[in-house]
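Allow me, if you will, to draw on your knowledge of protein folds for a short while. The matter concerns a single protein, recorded as an amino acid sequence and a row of backbone structure tokens. Could you please explain, in whatever detail you think fit, how the structure tokens follow from the sequence? I remain grateful for any guidance, and I place the record below:

…
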Amino acid sequence: MNCARQLALILALSAPLLATNGMNLEGFGPIATGTGGAAMAHANGTGAMMSNPATLGLMADGDRRIEMVLGYLGPDVGAAVATPQGSIGATSAMDAIFMPALGWAQKRGHVTWGLGVFAQGGMGTEFSRSSWLADPSQGTNAGLTQGLLNRTEVSVGRVILPLVYDVDERLHVGGSVDLVWAGIDIQMALSEAQFVDLVTTQQRGTAGGSLTQVFGALYEPFGGTGVRRLHHAYFDFANDSDFTGQANGMGLAAKIGVVYEVSQELTVGATYHSKTAIGNLETDQALMRMGVNADTGLLTTGTPNGQYADLDLPVAGRVTIDDFQWPATLGLGVAYRAQERLHLVADLRRIQWSGVMQGFRMQFTAADTPQNGGFAGQRLDTELLQKWEDQTVLAFGAAYDVNHALQVRAGFNTGSNPVPDALLNALFPAIVERHFTLGAGYQLTQRTSLQLSYVRGSEAQFTNPGDGVGVPPVTSTHGQNNLQVMYTFGW
């Protein structure tokens, strides 16, 4: 097996998922998630590579371990639109996601190193062809014989190489170099009002480029000739893979961390995660479909005949998602042994979403083929405004040693919703604010153990108020049940 195939298998472990500190998972590995996601200042297995790699230095000299993790994410996402007839709801079908991870670490003398493959985070939804999102024309498009599937998947994963050095018996300093992978699927319908806003008032984003000029020459509300109405604009680039998005890219990131054992009872830790440097996400298997009420003669022969009909205009091409990155993060933590069997942990994290989530920028370039007609070779530049705010996350928990083999855990995690109401998109929910967690660990043998965790992301509800004219209010809800199990083998 060559290196390219090996890397493909490693990256396949990072499945699409729906995360809950914004797009970030609330914790990594069942030891951390059992205590609210806190992981900055206590030993929490190889999941430490994703939080504070310096905690790997807390391993005993000579310790070697491999850990296999399987996670289940059960998101419950809904979207309800306000209409004159009342609220109409829809439920996302993306309700069960399985997420494997793998970590290996060993310590020799003052040095600890390893390798890990973990999912970082993401978000996604799937609203069926019969949902209210499936027909942006609200029933006026006679040419729409089948509703439009509205689906998104954003997934980010890391292959991590950590290295930790024990400066002395108390101070552990470490870091990691991360190979970061990102993938995106989008099947998203915009209504006429939403698309026109991108071109004119630009309250929720922008659209420009030569393709808008060609369309503007046809669009009668803009003074053109031939297209009386735009029923919808539909972006479509997606695959059937559970592990990779249609548009994908790779890059690098780094982490640094420190852990200091103040005493036998008290340990403190800190970490900094750099902003990623991921290349543009690209695919040449993309479609932009426009549902229009248009002059049939103009579109077939180039000469208007005055006969209008509802038609579907598919345009094939290439999509480039520009500068999609994961944010820098600063974390601080403390671990305190309150009693012989009782351990308390707490973390404070600052996730700098504002540095990477100001807008979702996408370029669509129509293929230069006869099938694309007058749109051949034209380019559409769009940006959907996001303007996320930085997020402060507080995680704390407790672990109790029932006996020499069994430890039980509980915790809480909270972070404010980073998404402004006016820019909330039903296809990109990232609004859960509170998590309640439980966990347990059992030492099976001297060399093996089993860890479990359960996280309940309490349902959050936020409303995009719309514009009061053509874009109605939409209320998004998101709750989640997460399970993780980890098997550790040491030798």
The radius of gyration is 25 Å.
